[in-house]
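Researcher: For the annotation table, I need structure tokens for Thiamine diphosphokinase. Please keep the output clean. Sequence:
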Amino acid sequence: MQKKAVILANGVFPTHEIPLKELKESKHIICCDGAINNLEKAGLEPFAIIGDLDSLDSELKWKYKDIIHHFSNQDTNDLTKSVEWCIANKFNEIAIVGATGKRDDHMIGNVFLLPQYAKKVRVKMLTSYGVFTPIVRPKNFESYTRQQVSIFSPNNNTLITTANLRYSLTNQPLEMMWQGTLNESMGDSFRIEFEGGPLIVFQEYEK
């Protein structure tokens, strides 16, 4: 049985209709600490609030006292705490929104944490421009003709083969992080196979 959570991180609140739809239709919105401020402005209700609570004022702490889960550990960020809480509470699918748009270093860190989460749970990160999907095994992706696609390989020894992308790879590594960017789908799907891994795949939303 699928049990899905939407985690709202404390970056820029999403503006695109796809991540907004995820939020509006979710029964289980998990807020990373101060993200509750944006959620309240949007008129949506949280299912849980996770974090070290350094961004919550006393009024909100009182209002949501029954669903606040305080984790003071500074070795991980609030997004990771939220993902781990979801896993512990038997969620098997997670959509992350609001994790980009402020500090660039935080955004990059959030994206490259995705493979760590993908070892334990099905996860994706939706921005206002597209979706990041971490993969730990070969995968077929639904797509559309001329969709912009980028592949990021944290392990530069990973051998990658693609099908139905304009710039194909055949048992090749991406030795530099930028080398898999700015590719393009040739139809309604494409496939990525690899040895090693993991990989992170970005797909632009259809315009």
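Researcher: And a one-line annotation?
Model: The chain is about 25% helix and 30% strand.
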